[in-house]
UniProtKB/TrEMBL annotation:
This protein's record includes keyword Acyltransferase: no
Residue runs in coiled coils: none
Protein name: Methyltransferase domain-containing protein
Organism per entry: Paractinoplanes aksuensis
Keywords: Methyltransferase, Transferase
Sequence ranges assigned to domain Methyltransferase in this UniProt record: 52-148
Gene3D superfamilies with a match to the protein in the record: Vaccinia Virus protein VP39
Length: 291
């Protein structure tokens, strides 16, 4: 496994280069990607008046949903490494009078303190497995929580139960040239939290208690529009930066390559149904800890 500094630099570079694709896909991802975090939101049940942190908030759709749940008197703060996504989140969800969720740019692993802490609850959709030093990141999260506060997060299980993920990369890769290094073993990446025993160890080391890790199988449902669906999946994945740099004809070939591999998940004239295997992670900060 590469050392932490290398992994952290790789992660920062990856999100810097991939963020424009996420910005372009923000509305579609809010719509098609909602099942990726719905179970965690159900478990967390943010209440009016609570302060909630959304770790790795991307372009802010989930933070905005949480902000609606904690109104009135509560607050929602979205934190993300990628400046471009934080700027987009602010543009999308800050009301003209300045009300609404707040968004902060920062690396959860290296922040001394999270603005807005202490939190009653922390939410994170599809981010924790990307941390270069998960114990450092989770410790910052736990220290930002009130004693006994709750955490709910989703991460992918493994490649076998998320077949569209490798399909979206393999179908495009042949056309797009060099891509970022693929993670090996427990290196940060989509399947780095595949082993629930490892996840339990990391959460325990960061000071969490009452840890639960449950499998959930969900379906991402998107309209039968191959151009739209393939571009969404390419732009939010590891081929996204190369895709955005490519010529229109190359992009078109990349979309066609992905469409071929996704054909088995398509019902022509109806929709795409992408099977997705998640872990729902829930935990509490130690009731005796000091924030
Ligand atoms: C897979 S995306 C998920 C975004 C959003 N939660 C969603 O589900 O749409 C992972 C997000 O985590 C952010 N991220 C990765 N490492 C991070 C870190 N160390 N600190 C804060 N954010 C991080 C990335 O910039 C990216 O927006």
């Amino acid at each position: 496994m590469a050392d932490t500094d290398t992994l952290r630099a790789r992660n920062a570079d990856f999100w810097d280069r991939t963020a424009p694709g996420w910005v372009h896909q923000a509305d579609r991802h809010d719509q098609f990607g909602r099942p990726l975090g719905a179970v965690a939101l159900d478990w967390l049940r943010p209440q009016p008046g609570e302060r909630v942190l959304d770790v790795g908030c991307g372009c802010g759709g989930t933070t905005a949903e949480i902000a609606r749940a904690v109104t009135p008197l509560g607050s929602a703060i979205g934190l993300d490494l990628a400046e471009a996504m934080v700027t987009t989140a602010r543009d999308r969800f800050t009301a003209p009078d300045g009300a609404g969720p707040r968004f902060v740019a920062g690396d959860i692993e290296t922040l001394d303190a999270v603005p807005g802490a202490p939190f009653d609850a922390v939410y994170s959709r599809m981010t924790l497995m990307l941390l270069a030093d998960p114990v450092a990141g989770l410790t910052t999260v736990r220290q930002a929580m009130r004693p006994g506060a709750r955490l709910a997060a989703t991460v992918f299980r493994d490649g076998r139960v998320n077949p569209w993920l490798p399909a979206a990369l393999l179908g495009a890769a042949a056309h797009l040239g060099p891509l970022p290094p693929l993670p090996i073993g427990e290196e940060p990446g989509p399947f780095a939290f595949a082993d629930p025993a490892r996840v339990t160890r990391l959460l325990t080391a960061a000071g969490f208690t009452d840890i639960g890790i449950q499998p959930y199988d969900v379906t991402l449902d998107a309209p039968d529009d191959p151009e739209v669906v393939t571009e969404w999946l390419i732009e939010i994945g590891p081929a996204g930066a190369a895709y955005r740099d490519a010529e229109p004809t190359t992009r078109s070939k990349a979309r066609a390559g992905v469409a071929r591999l996704l054909e088995r998940f398509r019902t022509a004239g109806t929709d795409y149904r992408l099977p997705t295997g998640l872990w729902l992670i829930n935990a509490r900060s130690d009731r005796t800890s000091t924030p």
